Amino acid sequence: MTSAANTDSASDRLQALGLALPELRDNPYYVHHRSVDSSIYISGQLPYQDGWLLGQGTVGRDVELETAKELARHAALNCLAAAVQAVGDLDRVRIVQMLVFVASTPDFGEQSNVASAASDLLIEVLGENGRHARTAIGVAGLPLNSPVEIQMVCTAV
């Protein structure tokens, strides 16, 4: 089996991980990305797959840490799909900043571990272009009772 680290392009690394960029559905109220100068602002993405929200609930009560980490990876994958919409090619994407919201109980305290799963995915796929500034915060609730939402700022390389 080929290691994701031994392949040439970001698309090859994504495929080696057994992943593909999802198709994002249009929304009448917002766009998935907006470019201003060289910056690309990615709207908050939930862990959707094929039009279905993969989980609901509060981390630390209804959702286990490992599940939340997997949901964060899906939300990050959706962010990458939005970035590719903006720049046209995964190899042209550089992540500048990632903001991870985790709907969690007040005593949870492991938001950074949830965010690290998304960070790991970005670095696995994009290499050095996936390294980023990051903030992870716990919140009382998110849209559609999602456990995780991720917002990003990217640039084209």
UniProtKB/TrEMBL annotation:
This is RidA family protein. Residues 12-148 form the Endoribonuclease L-PSP/chorismate mutase-like domain. Transmembrane segments: none annotated. Pfam families: YjgF_endoribonc (PF14588). InterPro entries: Endoribo_LPSP/chorism_mut-like, RutC-like_sf.
